[in-house]
């Protein structure tokens, strides 16, 4: 773990130190002008590359003491999603659709290389559906692609994506340890450590962004550690793993449902995610306009209960499917309710609170 953390931090620090030279290799992006932007400036989008370096370094050390092929095959499956994201980070304009397709290819590669997929659902109807192998494989591939894409959607708020990955990977490690899946436990802890090395450079002041390579890459690893647990350990409750992976999943589900209800394009850039609402709400009610350098990192702090609580519930209920399904419904309702409350409070205080100007 220490090696993954140190390598990630060192590589990230080198990226920051040699930013002028690295910028010559990238095209101008102006991401801060995008509809969904919540940050200021244009930090390097290579933080995920540093985290992946740290993770690969840790896996290399792990393979020196292990004869299994799981870790190596997991890294091999990462290639399409990672390089599609990296090409986008370098400014070459890989569309969201193509990045999603690359994530799907990575998930398909994982199915072929690892020989694993989700074959049950811990509900009678889902068990019947997922038990049909072609359907189970297709749904697993779709889930892996969606989860990687969902992690990418929460990048841009300083520390948020990294915090979610750290919490979730630690939760996966805890469940894997209770199921005696030692290699998955080790890999999840390596992912946690490597991401934490990047986190120190991403929060509170974003010297580096995770970028698409990091979001899709780390998201793929995290999703497939979760898939592997439920495929290998029949005593692990699928809804418990979904609780551990909760935030990106339900942020995306909520966004899709909201845009379908409004009859809007679900693939268009969006600025109504929960983290974006909270950031703007903080500026309206408390901080004042044009202070994203304060409201951005503060949003991650405000979201800690929402990102940590489902993970904790998933770890506690790791082998109790009925209770885990119940808590999944509860947290989904809380997530949707929080959207409504934040919107209502922002509207209420918009006219009451004095608007501060940037100094």
TrEMBL record:
Pfam families assigned to the protein according to its UniProt record, in alphabetical order: Glycos_transf_4
Record's bilayer topology term: Multi-pass membrane protein
Entry's transmembrane regions: 44-63, 70-87, 99-119, 131-150, 156-177, 184-201, 221-250, 298-318, 324-345
Cofactor: Mg(2+)
GO MF term (any one): phosphotransferase activity, for other substituted phosphate groups
Subcellular location: Cell membrane
One annotated Gene Ontology cellular component of this protein: plasma membrane
Example GO biological process: cell wall organization
Keywords recorded for this protein, A-Z: Cell membrane, Magnesium, Membrane, Metal-binding, Transferase, Transmembrane, Transmembrane helix
Chain residues that bind Mg(2+): 152, 212
Name of the featured protein: UDP-N-acetylmuramyl pentapeptide phosphotransferase/UDP-N-acetylglucosamine-1-phosphate transferase
Protein source organism: Shimia gijangensis
């Amino acid at each position: 773990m220490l090696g993954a953390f140190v390598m990630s931090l060192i590589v990230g620090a080198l990226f920051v130190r040699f930013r002028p030279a690295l910028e010559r290799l990238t095209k101008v992006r102006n991401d801060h002008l995008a509809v969904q932007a919540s940050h200021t400036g244009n930090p390097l989008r290579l933080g995920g590359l540093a985290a992946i370096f740290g993770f690969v370094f840790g896996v290399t050390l792990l393979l020196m003491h292990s004869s299994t092929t799981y870790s190596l095959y997991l890294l091999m499956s990462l290639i399409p999603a990672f390089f599609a994201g990296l090409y986008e980070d370098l400014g070459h304009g890989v569309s969201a659709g193509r990045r999603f397709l690359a994530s799907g290819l990575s998930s398909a590669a994982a199915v072929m290389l690892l020989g694993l997929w989700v074959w049950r659902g811990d509900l009678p109807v889902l068990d019947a559906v997922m038990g049909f192998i072609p359907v189970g494989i297709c749904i697993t591939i779709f889930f892996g692609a969606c989860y990687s894409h969902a992690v990418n959607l929460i990048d841009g708020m300083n520390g948020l994506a990294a915090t979610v990955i750290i919490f979730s990977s630690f939760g996966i490690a805890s469940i894997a340890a209770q199921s005696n899946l030692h290699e998955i436990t080790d890999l999840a802890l390596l992912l946690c450590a490597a991401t934490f090395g990047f986190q120190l450079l991403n929060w509170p002041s974003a010297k580096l962004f995770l970028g698409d390579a990091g979001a899709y890459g780390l998201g793929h690893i995290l999703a497939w550690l979760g898939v592997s647990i439920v495929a290998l350990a029949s005593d692990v409750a699928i809804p418990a793993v979904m609780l551990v992976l909760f935030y990106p999943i339900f942020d995306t589900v909520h966004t899709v449902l909201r845009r379908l209800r409004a009859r809007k394009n679900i693939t268009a850039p969006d600025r109504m995610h929960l983290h974006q609402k909270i950031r703007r709400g903080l500026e309206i009610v408390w901080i004042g306009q044009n202070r994203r350098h304060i409201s951005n990192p503060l949003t991650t702090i405000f979201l800690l209960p929402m990102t940590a609580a489902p993970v904790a519930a998933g770890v506690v209920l790791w082998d109790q499917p009925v209770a885990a399904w119940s808590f999944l419904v509860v947290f989904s309702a809380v997530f949707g309710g929080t959207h409504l409350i934040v919107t209502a409070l922002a509207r209420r205080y918009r006219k009451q609170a004095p608007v501060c100007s940037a100094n």
